[in-house]
User: Fold this.
Amino acid sequence: MVISVPKPAFPDVPNALGVPAMIRNPVAVAETEASVIAGDLIETLILDQHGPWGIYDKTGKKIAASQYFLGLDFSKEYRVSDAPMEQGAFQSYNKVETPFLARVTLACDGTGFFGFGGSSAFGFGSTAGETRQAFLAAIAAAVSSTDVFSIVTPDATYVNSNLVHYDYTRTHRQGVSLLAVTVGFQEIRTGAIRRFAHPQTPDGAETTNTGLVQAQTPTSAQAAPASTAGVN
Assistant:
């Protein structure tokens, strides 16, 4: 007895490097891509629900209106100074705190999926492209500025940091629907300068830089102390 085995219309072979071109089910490919995109968006939504995330300026505004947080890499370092001693020994004599460094990954899908406005559920169309362009323009403007920002997470808030770097990757497989940008921050420390408006003696006044000045012949009153001391 001959048993006929049904042949599938489309092969169940992954579309990977080295696999020859085959006729594939276009519906299955679309479902896979949609599933990956939806999974990324759902994971981000869950991340947002666990607490406040974001980068804010001194007025409490987000660095980019269409941003949402994907991840944070934070590093803090102290440096200890040391000097060589006799017989191969060394002596440590100072410990200095260095500015913290942070790398934050932000994303923009250019849609209204998270309430930011857009054109479609998966970030395609002219409106989505314009939103991503505005997102990149806002980050580029922040990098070139001297403003300080606060990195807010559910665990801690890192204040007084300046945006010093950003990078992103856009290929035919990455960044088409969800544009992820990594931005780098460095801590900025400001210190107060003590000034005395009315010192008791002229020697207590601070040196003031008035720019370039022309040399002038001293007056008799200015030259008298030098002549008295024997300097001609």
About this structure: The first helix runs from residue 26 to 49. Strands lie at 54-56, 68-75, 78-84, 90-97, 101-108, 149-152, 157-168, 179-187. Confidence is low (pLDDT under 50) at residues 112-126.
